[in-house]
Amino acid sequence: MQKSLKKYFPIFALPTVAAFLIAFLIPFLIGIYLSFARFRTVTDATWVGLDNYIRAFSNQDFLNALWFTIKFAVVSVVTINIFAFILALMLTKGIKGTNLFRTVFFMPNLIGGIVLGYIWQLIINGVLSYWGVDITYNASYGFWGLVILMNWQLIGYMMIIYIAGIQNIPSELVEAAKMDGASALQTLKSITIPMVMPSITICMFLTLTNSFKLFDQNLALTAGAPGRQTAMLALDIYSTFYGRVGWQGVGQAKAVIFFVIVALISLTQLVLTRRKEVEQQ
Amino acid sequence: MSMTKAKKTDIREANEVSKGTGIIMTVILAILTLVFLFPILIIFINSFKSRLFISNVPFQLPNSETFVGLTNYLDGAVKTRFFQAFGWSTFITVFSVVFIVLLTAMTAWYLTRIKTAWTNALYYLFVFSMIVPFQMVMFTMSKVVNMLSLDNPVGIIVIYIGFGSGLSVFMFCGFVKSIPLEIEEAAVLDGCGPIQVFFRVVLPMLKPTAITVAILNAMWIWNDYLLPYLILGTERKTIPVAIQYLRDGYGSIDMGAMMAMLVLAIVPIIIFYLSCQKYIIKGVAAGAVKG
Predict the structure, then answer these.
(1) Does B184 reside within a domain?
(2) How far apart are CA A13 and CA A27, in angstroms?
(3) What is the pLDDT of residue B290?
């Protein structure tokens, strides 16, 4: 079989590989090269060494976006996971209507970022209008607006993963704890949380990478206003590419830095989950 | 299957709370449900109000002064050419998903069954692509697309196959590894060539993973904004591009049209969700654990 199948590369693998090369691999490699070049249209690139990276790191908009993104990611990861975990606990108690609640909480996750952004723009501006301002009045309004939006979108998703984790806990453990007279809080601390640690790791990293890569919601909700104070990394890279002539090289350097940060987060996750798997064996 | 079901009821019983606590929890959850539905409800209500009143009094029900019937829907649909956008979104999503599922399943089978340094390297390249954010390749990809004249609704499908292949190949590979070789060898002994083995034996077994892959890709492509905007521009809009166009294409946002278009954008998603909820929740959870 092996031998006869081997000749079938053009049928089985080539179409995917070709699309992968065009959409991802070739642009990725050119992108790395262009981050060291000055260019406007790709074909007119001249090598400038680390110049783009120096300009990126001395660019106030970029540093501001980096800081804003980190703050946003930390707050989102904490709030989303706490709320999602509490909901998951409540929805694994066999309460009536569990299915309906689960369905509703998960739904916002299916709505696209642009649509989500405009939904929350109306709600937040509606509330702020009682004080005669709107979301572009102050950067912290935009920040908390994005946090609320992100919570609304991701809580249900993380809740589903936590529910699966809690349901996988062997029921003997919980019953044994009950018989030993453990209080609900003690059971939570000594059984539930340690047993769902793998789910917690997954959810932490899912929310972290999703928060870091946020673009659509940011564009629709604030578009960076006021000024560029609420622009996150992805939006800042976008406006460097398409909003400033002659800055494409800097945009590409920012994109490489962005890629390195996201890749480091993913690698950390990989190492952590691998280590846990080894411990369990 | 029955094992896991038994386990689920067990843990629920073990977790069960007293009746009083149960009622309090139900009340809290019911209130939270309303909080979760509130934003969508507000959008729906406002889509029937005159655009002049939406920003000022968003939390008021329409009255005889503010009610405008379907005007917003008509205005919005004309301004954004919404139904055309709906058509393009459907066309691009359906064909991209069909090709992604079929092609990456074939590729994953090939990469798993043929063990060489090359197939191994390809597999890791696919996995690697999953951690690269879109902004990294956004600019150069759109230039490559222009050079190859792929900047049209058919070409964008090729790009979606390329971007979707990472996660999809990874998920299919995970499943193919668990299929015992003997099944395929038996088919070969019966005189099947590789193509027949794949379509008659392997592909039917891949069905559960195929559903997950299809749902994850469909959700991503249907909601994607930046890729269609960069490749197709605003001439041939998908739904997210059409909605963003209400802000970019005109001086000030027509809030009435915006509300109506948001409703039209959400309705198909909710219908899709309610009709295959079981698969969607399972698929998304599986995708998260594996990705």
Answers:
(1) yes
(2) 20
(3) 52
